[in-house]
Design brief:
Distance between the termini: 8 Å
Bound molecules: inosinic acid, magnesium ion
Order of helices and strands: EHEHEEEEHEEE
Mean pLDDT: 93
Number of strands: 9
Shape: globular
Helix content: 10-25%
């Protein structure tokens, strides 16, 4: 059956929320030299937009986490790759990702960061799918809460593609 693209969140709507969130984060981190850690690969588009709207002084460093790869369901087995060059100890850390689904990725990354003795760890995600949660993780900031539907665009991929699409969409069956 043929599939058609259905836009769930328009680019303009995302831009508006990004500005709002940046303002909230700036307020929260007033006077702090923040360590911002976007998660690759899905978090890079949202992170790039968010940090450019923020005025807080910050250092940015990256971690890569394993994702769905070639499937649409999470394996529940999270891998964290790469070494941070930045010092984490006693720093305020902001982790940025595309989506909290089962919650396993963010839970693992927060735990990993905490093992390095930061002053605080805060999480911000573009999307939250609370109905899919498998662990007790709650993002501190989420731009949008969505239903249980597989989406792509704005950093999110299907078979490693479509991350560059500047809005969030899903595929629906044509009838
Ligand atoms: P979690 O560990 O189950 O919370 O999943 C987090 C990761 O799964 C995200 O960083 C995404 O890479 C991927 N993911 C979850 N839901 C979707 C989706 O609807 N579309 C594309 N990727 C998704
Ligand atoms: Mg991902």
């Amino acid at each position: 059956m043929a599939k058609t693209e259905k836009i769930l969140i328009e680019r303009k709507e995302i831009e508006k929320r990004v500005v709002e969130l940046a303002g909230e984060l700036d307020e929260r981190f007033q006077g702090v030299d923040l360590l911002v850690v976007p998660l690759l690969r899905g978090g890079f588009v949202f992170a790039a937009d968010l940090v450019r709207e923020m005025k807080t002084r910050m250092e940015i460093d990256f971690l890569t986490t394993s994702s769905y790869e070639h499937q649409e369901v999470s394996t529940g087995n999270v891998k964290i790759f790469g070494n941070l060059r930045a010092q984490v100890k006693d720093r305020h850390v902001l982790i940025i990702d595309d989506i909290v689904d089962s919650g396993r990725t963010m839970e693992s990354v927060v735990e990993y960061m905490k093992s390095m003795g930061p002053a605080s760890v805060t999480s911000v995600v573009l999307l939250d799918k609370p109905s899919r949660r498998e662990v007790d993780f709650h993002a501190d900031y989420a731009a949008f809460t969505i239903e249980d539907v597989f989406i792509v665009g704005f950093g999110l991929d299907y078979e490693s593609h479509y991350r560059n699409v500047p809005y969030i969409y899903t595929y629906v069956d044509e009838d």
